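Tip: read the tokens left to right.
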């Protein structure tokens, strides 16, 4: 049942993004940024953690989940070290995922062959 709810919630988040692309003049970059900011705001008001608990990866993997991760990191860092945690908490919480994406991007660039697009 966990897989079903993760699929449904993650799918609904993606459907919302597709509807925004199709029916508004928003650019993909603005939609992605809006998703991250929405994740931060929903996490700050306490509305996103119950969704992550309910849907698991369906809520924590999309960009809303990245915003939630940043907000949790800032909250934890402020509790531990005070005001400087505002600046360091988000990066510390997301460092593993950012590092993994960079390492895999470099590996793909080294393994793959680039071609002229024309």
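Filled-in amino acids:
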């Amino acid at each position: 049942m966990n897989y079903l709810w993760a699929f449904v919630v993650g799918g609904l988040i993606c459907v919302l993004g597709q509807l925004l692309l199709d029916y508004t003049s928003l650019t993909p970059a603005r939609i992605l940024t809006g998703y991250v900011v929405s994740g931060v705001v929903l996490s700050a008001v306490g509305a996103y953690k119950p969704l992550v608990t309910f849907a698991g990866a369906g809520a924590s993997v999309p960009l809303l989940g990245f915003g939630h991760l940043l907000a949790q990191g800032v909250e934890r860092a402020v509790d531990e070290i005070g005001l400087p945690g505002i600046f360091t908490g988000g990066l510390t919480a997301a460092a593993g995922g950012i590092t993994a994406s960079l390492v895999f991007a470099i590996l793909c660039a080294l393994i793959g062959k680039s071609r002229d697009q024309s």
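The chain has one domain: 2-111. Residues 2-111 form one domain.
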